[in-house]
Design brief:
The complex is a heterodimer of chains A (about 110) and B (about 110). Chain A is mostly beta strands and about 110 residues long. Chain A has strands at about 5, 10-15, 20, 25, 30-40, 45-50, 55-60, 65-70, 75-80, 85-95, 100-105, 105-110. In chain A, the strands form three sheets. In chain A, strands 2, 5, 6, 10, 11 and 12 form a six-stranded mixed sheet that branches. A four-stranded antiparallel sheet of chain A has the order 3-9-8-7, with no helix packed on it. In chain A, strands 1-4 form a two-stranded antiparallel ribbon. The radius of gyration of chain B is 13 Å and the shape is globular. The chains are: A mainly beta (about 110), B mainly beta (about 110). The interface of A and B includes residues 36, 43, 95 and 102 of A.
Chain lengths: ~110, ~110
């Protein structure tokens, strides 16, 4: 069975400093992986996706993630945090048999001025 | 191009009642999935429809049901509401079944009192 584990439930950074949100996955197959962001009282917005092309994936708003098969990781990074990045972030794997999305528990990113 | 539209945005219902939520996917998308989001359980998959057929179902009781129409619009129904059904219900649309990126609506916030 496929699953994702987000290693931090809460991350706090200062504005202008780097962001690292950690995600490990478990999959028997070559996975499709995604990062979504959810701002308060909003739906989910796709940040980026990995589908077995380049291992370094660039997304919107300056975010990127690197797929590391040897470490079964798909960490999300951003060089410089902005106040508007404060939100909840979800690492997601797509079940290759059913196509359903399997969500991690989420990481709340706090950005301090 | 219009996004995913969910109606209504907010609902308050009494225990024992039933409720119907609606989702209009992005034009041309034939896959619609439903998710329940609660603080305790996070995001959980309810079911997925593709071309009017239910393709997958999550681990929810039979009180939760859905359908998809020929224009790809989808509805989900919850009968005999319980307090624990209070949640944000999110709908996602995809162009294809399985593995492709999903676009989410803003959700319907259901409160059961």
């Amino acid at each position: 069975a496929q699953s994702v584990t987000q290693l931090d439930s809460h991350v706090s950074v200062s504005e202008g400093t780097p962001v690292l949100l950690r995600c490990n996955y478990s999959s028997s197959y070559s996975p499709s992986l995604f990062w979504y962001v959810q701002h308060p009282n909003k739906g989910l917005q796709l940040l980026l996706k990995y589908t077995s092309a380049a291992t370094l994936v660039k997304g919107i708003n300056g975010f990127e993630a690197e797929f590391k098969k040897s470490e079964t990781s798909f960490h999300l990074t951003k060089p410089s945090a902005h106040m508007s990045d404060a939100a909840e972030y979800f690492c997601v794997v797509s079940d290759s048999n059913t196509g359903k999305l399997i969500f991690g528990q989420g990481t709340t990113l706090q950005v301090k001025p | 191009k219009a996004g995913v539209t969910q109606t209504p945005r907010y609902l308050i219902k009494t225990r024992g009642q039933q409720v119907t939520l609606s989702c209009s996917p992005i034009s041309g998308h034939r896959s619609v999935s439903w998710y329940q989001q609660t603080p305790g359980q996070g995001l959980q998959f309810l079911f997925e429809y593709f071309s009017e057929t239910q393709r997958n179902k999550g681990n929810f009781p039979g009180r939760f049901s859905g359908r998809q129409f020929s224009n790809s619009r989808s509805e989900m129904n919850v009968s005999t509401l319980e307090l624990g059904d209070s949640a944000l219900y999110l709908c996602a649309s995809s162009s294809m079944w399985g593995g492709t990126e999903a676009f989410f609506g803003q959700g319907t916030r259901l409160t059961v009192v």
